[in-house]
Design brief:
GO terms for molecular function: ATP binding; ATP hydrolysis activity. It comes from Fredinandcohnia quinoae. The chain has an 8-stranded mixed beta sheet with strand order 6-7-8-3-9-10-12-11, with helices on both faces. A two-stranded antiparallel sheet has the order 1-2. Strands 4-5 form a two-stranded antiparallel ribbon. About 35% of the residues are buried. About 30% of the residues lie in helices and about 20% in strands. It starts with a strand and ends in a 5-residue tail after the last strand. The chain has a single domain (about 5-85, about 165-310), classed as Rossmann fold. The radius of gyration is 21 Å and the shape is globular. The chain has about 325 residues and is of the alpha/beta class. The chain binds iron/sulfur cluster and magnesium ion. Iron/sulfur cluster (SF4) binds near residues 241, 311 and 312.
Length: about 325
């Protein structure tokens, strides 16, 4: 609810604060239990920061995160540690999050030790069970991260996230570093696990293609804000925001009957430390009107469940 994260920019010889980057600048949305919410945007739009704010790996500048009816932004560190069992993250590069000096058994055991779950024997059993669940084998337990392929390493990353039986998983570009053929295997695994364990996913990606099939709803971010959010089916069939239309133009569609109006986006994404006035997209929007340059459009519900921030609607 109204989530913000502003990072100071320090400069000069004295390192004084010279400005700030509004990485996340007023986000409000909900995720339903058991659904997958895709969050999409170009790099620097604040999507990873959003994921970290939800898990409180970063403290928000303003706003709240409410999880199972509890405001977790006001919890103490020790209360938060208990809750972390229930919320886990999968990273883009599992290699960076897996300790290269530890074998898989030790890597997967760690979350159980941190949360005081089970004795040594139970932990070892659970590690072997989990390896099977993510499509690896118990004989992989004694191997080290470098002995696996990228796809297998992401399976280990997923296994690690699942060790504590979480209900919410934030997946931050979990397949972006993988070959296309391997991407679909990992996405299928994630879908199977979701069905089996009733998991809720927030799935962060930089293009709309990847999240299309896995997401129930998709939100599009631009410069720290959501600009459109609706059911997946609707977003791909009938996008409203000019930026969403432009992003979709970059995604090939398999449906030959579906025609999309071509939308151009000119120029680079502006710096989040100096965002344009009014609608932050106005410098690149081919539908820009006078009002867009001075007044920021509200993020409002224009049809049931379809939210958009644009003066055209
Ligand atoms: Fe384009 Fe104006 Fe809509 Fe922004 S508010 S996306 S500039 S039409
Ligand atoms: Mg990122």
């Amino acid at each position: 609810s109204n989530l913000k994260k502003h990072f100071p920019i320090n400069g000069g010889v004295l390192g004084k604060r010279v400005g700030e980057v509004k990485a996340v600048d007023g986000l409000s949305f909900f995720v339903k239990k058991g659904e997958t919410l895709g969050i999409v945007g170009e790099s620097g739009c604040g999507k990873s920061t959003t994921g970290r704010l939800i898990l409180r790996l970063l403290e928000p500048t303003e706003g709240k995160v409410i999880f199972n009816n509890q405001d977790i932004t006001s919890l103490s560190n020790s209360e938060m540690r208990k809750l972390r069992r229930d919320m886990q993250i999968i990273f883009q590069d599992p290699y960076a999050s897996l300790n290269p000096r530890h074998n898989v058994e030790k890597i997967l055991e760690e979350p159980l030790i941190v949360h005081g779950i089970g004795d040594k024997k139970e932990r070892k059993r659970k590690v072997r069970e989990m390896l099977e669940i993510v499509g690896l084998s118990s004989y992989h337990a004694k191997r080290y991260p470098h002995q696996f392929s990228g796809g297998q390493r992401q399976r280990i990353g997923i296994a690690k996230a699942l060790m504590t039986n979480p209900s919410l998983i934030i997946a931050d570009e979990p397949v972006s570093a993988l070959d296309v053929s391997i991407q679909s295997q990992v996405l299928n695994l994630m879908e199977d696990l979701q069905k089996e364990y009733g998991l809720t996913y927030i799935f962060i990606a930089h293009d709309l293609g990847v999240v299309r099939h896995i997401s129930d709803r998709v939100g599009v971010m631009y410069l720290g804000r959501l600009i459109e959010l609706t059911d997946s089916e609707k977003l791909y069939r009938k996008p409203l925001h000019p930026y969403t239309k432009a992003l979709l133009d970059a995604v090939p569609i398999p449906d030959p009957d579906y025609k999309r109006e071509a939308i151009e986006v000119s120029g680079e994404i502006p710096s989040p430390s100096n965002p344009p006035s009014g609608c932050a997209f106005h410098t690149r929007c081919s539908s820009c009107m006078d009002i867009c340059k001075s007044i920021r459009p509200d993020f409002k519900e224009v049809e049931p469940g379809h939210y958009v921030a644009c003066h055209l609607y």
